[in-house]
Specification:
With 429 residues, chain A is an alpha/beta fold. In chain A, 43% of the residues lie in helices and 16% in strands. Chain A has 3 domains: 17-22 and 288-422, Rossmann fold; 29-150, Nitrogenase molybdenum iron protein domain (Rossmann fold), CATH 3.40.50.1980; 176-275, Rossmann fold (3-Layer(aba) Sandwich), CATH 3.40.50.1980. Chain B contains 22 helices and 16 strands. A 5-stranded parallel sheet of chain B has the order 12-11-10-13-14, sandwiched between helices. A 4-stranded parallel sheet of chain B has the order 3-2-4-5, sandwiched between helices. Chain B is 47% helix and 12% strand. The chains are: A alpha/beta (429), B alpha/beta (520). Chains A and B meet through helix 2, strand 3, helix 3, helix 4 and helix 5 of A and strand 1, helix 2, helix 3, helix 4 and helix 16 of B.
Chain lengths: 429, 520
């Protein structure tokens, strides 16, 4: 088991940075399946785990939208654990059942969980065996979304990393760009239009809309992260020759502009063309953000650890909306993809990596920030104490990247504050 | 290994959290990885609880395995005891922790904690949420009360007639179905009979309150999914009688009153205890249209059995299917099914339930959140009567399911998704008016109710031609004269009839032959 929860590398943040170890209040990596299965529309995610895993995904997704979702759980029973049933045979049976049921599926991910990791169920070997059986019908592989190894968005990193070895090699002398990390379809379309205008061609979004969208990779590949939780995959791509473009994340007008500029610079696009292409969407984004700025300016915000989006969100809010940052809690701080962010963050902002829930909540209660960004399990508890919150899962589920989502992003944070100013219903609690 | 898409119940430790979250001054230390903390949002989001459940999770990671997980358990226990100062500290494993066998219960007992410890065995790989809640409640009650038990064979002293009789309400929990309001309603009902409520538990009780349980004259087994085990232990150990009728619906509420009176040996004038509008609403002529509506019931055991009785005896529906996801309650539901001449569907596989609904083509579904989705997909009206339920089933308003007010609520809730009698009549009358748009559906349902769905289903059916059976022009025209909300059904029935008769073309006469064939 890899210790991906622990970060490594020297820090690029000038200010106070501490690691906390204690009780955590975050989802496990299985939660990533909720957006991954929406993004990769011909993939199916089969969690090999317990009833808890099934219940977690269904509860975190909030509602059941589909009659038959493109994810399921193979629930381990006592017979499997006691060795009365052979887990590989059982998995074989379950997968055959599934493939027979869902003919449109081109890719099947076996997803490891806490129980499957603890009993050392070798899903990689299982996937290889199943692949041989279902050759030419469906591509089968595995990754771990277990909570003992991954936190929330790290599930996506593990999923993507597991497919890097399958990527075809980019022909020598050719160039391409990989945009790494799930973005929604609408964001992809907007980005593609801008890449076209910048004259940057052969752009691949990874993961793509189809499981078969496998970008070729090699020394001619440039790599840019669209999400902060793809560090392991980025390392694997770099190992195959890709060159990482350092940039802040495309959040807000400034973040998006810097992101595109960094890419354009890597492609040596002429500066006047770049400024010409980006000017219109940049100004539009600034206008959209500015309409929310008055509600946010001067307010203090506190991030509890959740999605790894905390650092770029804090940068956007302080840089473009005038918020003061109380504390940035983040479950895992990957320096590799965060370099472009840290230099833009005020040096005195404390970054707390990891979590110790009760003391962390005490700090929130003591400093009473105007807004606390936190998980759904905590938000109402803080609200009932008279504190305003923004539940962080929405930042992962909604399209927030790029120029034309900058206003929406600001409004996600402004809404709880606006709501407080509107309501005349007495005590919040 | 079992392939599962959606689950009706969570794992057993979620049942333990439900008990802990329902009570005051208890704390649960759950040995579990970080992902298990999702359980918090069930309470804070679905039930809109203003506090996190009183749970400390150890959230051990891969790097802790094999070396320091036991140490994490002990630290978590100490911190939880120190920080929350509970009257009782419960200790349990979640599914993953069960595999690493740290035995946190034994560690807790050896840790010399300044608080009584109740150790729970949650059997994550064989059991489910309701069992976990029942087991937790039982272990808690037994752990606190067993030393107060009288010697076996001791006769329970008979009740002092000068003292007002009292009962305990056992079983209601957080995330139960309308437990908050049912407790209020049943307490009101009991008070109007001259009966006090001694302890309500787990909901709102402290461990200290649990110690007072034996002071009551009897226990009301209000949510048998949670309280069966505890009630039978209290009956065995303290000789406390159990009141088993669940007062859901008008008839069951009266049966409940009678059982309470008989158990406590008190005189009660049934008609003075309270009344419901349900009997009159059901008898009023507007309700004629409810007659024989085909209803499919699927829920936890107690709600399925109670709802089927209300559906048939108090609403005049026909129960065409009944089932439960709860294997622990299978026997009760099978027995009830027999009364309706049915075979109960006992499954926690959502796809099997969907297949059964599809096959039975009921006119209404009474089910859980899962059946709400099934019904929505199939265009069938539905009311939610049981857990698992979603946020809209934890309403702001007072909305009990039990007692006389509960019966009123059931009538309203079940009738609402249907097209009301008078409105059905008016739809008939104005159907041919050029200014009337019959695809809009009944006004009280917006775009969500039976009418809109039936219209959509009907249109979909209209567009669909099977290929083997052809509708003659005149027959098709005749079909269009049938109100939209039964048109789809008429089409299906006629085609089914034609197929059975081996007809290739449906004439006007076939339509009416089929109508005669299917009317009974």
């Amino acid at each position: 088991m890899s210790a991906v929860i622990a970060s490594s590398g020297e820090s690029h943040h000038a200010g106070p940075q501490v690691q906390e170890r204690g009780q955590r209040a975050v989802f496990c990596g299985l939660t990533s399946i909720i957006w991954l299965h929406r993004r990769i529309q011909d993939a199916f995610f089969l969690v090999v785990g317990s009833r808890t895993c099934a219940h977690l995904i269904q509860s975190a997704a909030g509602v059941m939208i589909f009659a038959e979702p493109r994810f399921a759980t193979a629930i381990l029973g006592e017979r499997d654990l006691a060795g009365m049933a052979d887990c590989h045979e059982e998995l074989d049976r379950v997968v055959s059942e599934l493939i027979a049921r869902r003919s449109g599926i081109n890719r099947l991910f076996l997803v490891g969980s806490c129980p499957s990791e603890v009993i050392k169920l070798d899903l990689e070997t299982a996937a290889a065996k199943l692949q041989a059986k279902h050759e030419n019908k469906v591509r089968i592989s595995s990754f771990s979304g277990s909570g003992i190894e991954t936190t929330f968005t790290q599930g996506e990193d593990q999923c993507l990393k597991s497919t890097v070895a399958e990527l075809p090699t980019l022909e020598a002398g050719k160039e391409n760009l990989i945009v790494l990390g799930t973005v929604s379809d609408i964001v992809e379309d907007q980005f593609r239009r801008l890449f076209d205008e910048l004259g940057i061609t052969d752009v691949h979004f990874y993961p793509g809309r189809k499981a078969g969208d496998m970008p070729p990779i090699g020394p001619g590949t440039r790599l840019i992260a669209a999400q902060p939780f793809v560090g392991e995959t980025a390392r694997a791509l770099i190992a195959r020759g890709a060159v990482l473009i350092e940039a802040p994340f495309p959040l807000g007008a400034e973040g998006s502009k810097s992101w595109f500029e960094a890419i354009a610079e890597a492609y040596s696009r002429p500066d006047d063309l770049v400024q010409h292409v980006l000017e219109l969407p940049y100004q539009r984004a600034k206008r959209a953000v500015s309409s929310h700025r008055s509600k946010l300016e001067g307010k203090r915000i506190h991030f509890l650890p959740d999605s790894q989006l905390e650092i770029p969100m804090a940068r956007f809010l302080s840089e473009e909306c005038g918020l003061a940052i109380n504390e940035i809690g983040t479950p895992f701080h990957d320096q590799l993809v965060m370099r472009g962010e840290l230099s833009r963050l005020a040096p005195e902002v404390p970054i707390v990596e990891g979590q110790d829930l009760d003391p962390a909540l005490e700090r929130v209660r003591e400093s009473r920030p105007d807004l606390t960004v936190c998980g759904m399990g905590i938000a109402n508890a803080l609200e009932s104490e008279g504190l305003r919150t923004k539940w962080s899962i929405e930042l992962v589920f909604s399209p927030v990247q790029g120029f034309d989502q900058a206003g929406d992003l600001a409004s996600l944070f402004a809404k709880p504050l606006v709501r407080e100013s509107i309501l005349e219903v007495g005590s919040w609690s | 290994m079992e392939l599962t898409l959606w689950t009706y119940e969570g794992p057993p430790h979620v049942g333990a959290i439900r008990v802990a979250a329902s009570m005051r001054d208890v704390h649960l230390m759950l040995h579990s990885p970080q992902g298990d903390t999702y359980a918090d949002l069930l309470f804070t989001m679905i039930e809109r609880d203003g506090r996190r459940p009183p749970v400390t999770y150890t959230t051990f990671q891969a790097r802790d395995l094999g070396s320091s997980t036991a140490e994490i358990v002990i630290n978590s226990l100490r911190e939880a005891a120190e920080r929350y100062k509970p009257q009782v500290l419960m200790v349990a494993d979640s599914c993953t922790a069960e595999l690493i066998q740290d035995q946190p219960g034994a560690l807790a007992l050896g840790a010399d904690l300044p608080v009584p410890v109740i150790s729970l065995e949650m059997a994550a790989y064989t059991r489910k949420e309701n069992w976990g809640a029942a087991e937790t409640f039982y272990q808690l009650v037994r752990g606190l009360l067993s030393r107060n038990a009288p010697a076996p064979g001791t006769q329970r002293p008979s009740r002092d007639p000068a003292v007002r009789p009292s009962v305990n309400l056992l079983g209601p929990t957080k995330l139960g179905f309308r437990c908050r309001d049912d407790v209020v309603e049943v307490e009101r009902l009991l008070n109007s009979m001259g009966v006090d409520v001694n302890v309500v538990a787990p909901l709102g009780a402290s461990p200290h309150d649990l110690l007072l349980i034996p002071n009551a004259d009897a226990n009301v087994n209000l949510c048998p999914e949670v309280s069966d085990l505890t009630c039978s232990w209290l009956a065995r150990t303290f000789g406390m009688p159990t009141i088993k009728t669940i007062p859901m619906g008008w008839g069951a509420t009266r049966d409940f009153i009678a059982e309470v009176a008989a158990t406590l040996e008190i005189e009660v004038n049934m008609d003075q205890v309270g009344a419901s509008r349900l009997p009159w609403y059901s008898r009023s002529i507007d309700s004629t249209y409810l007659t024989g509506k085909r209803v499919f019931v699927f829920a936890d055991g107690s709600h399925a059995v109670a709802a089927a009785r209300v559906a048939r005896d108090e609403m005049g529906f026909e129960v065409v299917g009944i089932g439960t996801y709860s294997r622990e309650r299978a026997r009760d539901v099978r027995a009830a099914a027999k009364e309706y001449g049915l075979e109960a569907l006992i499954t926690d596989n959502y796809l099997e339930v969907e297949a059964r609904v599809q096959e039975l083509q009921p006119e209404m579904v009474l089910g859980t959140q899962m059946e709400r989705h099934i019904a929505k997909r199939l265009g069938i009206p539905c009311a939610v009567i049981s857990t698992p339920a979603h946020v809209q089933d934890y309403p702001a308003r007072y909305s009990p399911q039990m007692g006389f007010e509960g019966a009123n609520v059931l009538f309203d809730t079940w009738v609402h998704p249907l097209i009301m009698g008078l409105e059905e009549h008016l739809l008939h009358m104005f159907r041919d008016d050029f200014e009337f748009n019959d695809s809009v559906g009944p006004s009280h349902l917006g775009s969500e109710g039976e009418g809109a769905r039936a219209a959509k289903a009907g249109n979909a059916q209209d567009a669909e031609t099977d290929g083997t059976i052809v509708w003659a022009f005149e027959a098709e025209k005749e079909l269009k004269k049938i109100p939209f909300f039964v048109r789809g059904k008429a089409r299906r029935n006629t085609e089914k009839f034609a197929e059975e008769q081996g007809l290739l073309t449906i004439e006007v006469d076939t339509l009416y032959d089929a109508k005669a064939h299917f009317s009974n």
